[in-house]
Amino acid sequence: MANLEEQAAQTLFDKNLIKEEQFTAIKAYRALNIFSVHNELKFLLYLSMLLFTSGVGILIYQNIDTIGHTVLLGLLLLVTLTCFYFCFKNHPGFKKDEAPFPNPLYDYLVLTAVILSCSFVGYLQFQYQTFGTHYGLATLIPTIISLFCAYYFDNKSVLSIGITGMAAYLGLSVDPKHYFENEMFNNTTLSYIGLAFGLTLLLWALYAIKINLKKHFNLVYLTFSLHLIGIACIVNLCDDFWFPFGLVLGIAAYYFYNLSFQIRSISLFIFTVLYGFVGMNIFFVQMLTAIHFDDFFSIFLFTTPFYFIGTILGFIKLIKHFNKKTSDDSIR
């Protein structure tokens, strides 16, 4: 990493983008070997938030018979409202562009408040059936709260909770493991919903860019969209009506591949290549099955080890190409 930073500074100096005094100052600063503990502190704050919300859940579970439901709900509501009070008090207000808190500590307070509000609504529905048999409302209300807080307080973590809540309301799980376990192979309707939801998130991200609304949220939307579209298409590639989904996956992979270079997102790049590779192989096998080219399978089994070695080398080459391309663009 240090060598890359030195090379970047040298490149800027060679291209006369920085002066000799600036180049000397950069080298002197890096010679101090100062490092930041910002990420470590943020991790500790996030961990403390998770421990607190988990502790509240454990407290409710262990003392539910001795304290009483009403008291527990009252305490939970009081803590939640207190968190929201300090968040609203210390935030500058909604803005279409990025509007962070003056103190990043409040970002974790917002996240805590949203998680506690989800727990409150879920507990209320479970114990008192407040929404009757309309169980979707118990998911929809925390989702609306999460999306409102995400945009008002400019919080990406809360936005992820909101998108997950929307997916749950539609009967989906955006975790790939649960996505397959959720009867995706037996219930193609869920895969259609997942594909439609993924395309909707993609369209919303493009529309948000057009109206200049929280453009820094787009990576979150694009990540969810890629997973939903990729998994839904792969599931349907294993079905009888597979050909259109192969085309959709190919178009989506091409789009997200180019987009990952534009926004310099290594995670988007890796998952795009992964979904594209899996989908391409399934599509290829389906094509061979459709034309009844049975003799090819013996050749394919023989060449399988070489094929996978070649794909691993190709993947490494793609990663190097991505790093070189994005590094050159950032310097340029």
TrEMBL record:
Keywords: Membrane, Transmembrane, Transmembrane helix. It comes from the Bacteria. The chain crosses the membrane at residues 43-61, 67-88, 108-126, 132-153, 158-174, 189-207, 219-237, 243-261, 268-291, 297-316. Residues 12-158 form the DUF2157 domain. InterPro entries: DUF2157. This is Putative membrane protein DUF2157. It comes from Flavobacterium aquicola.
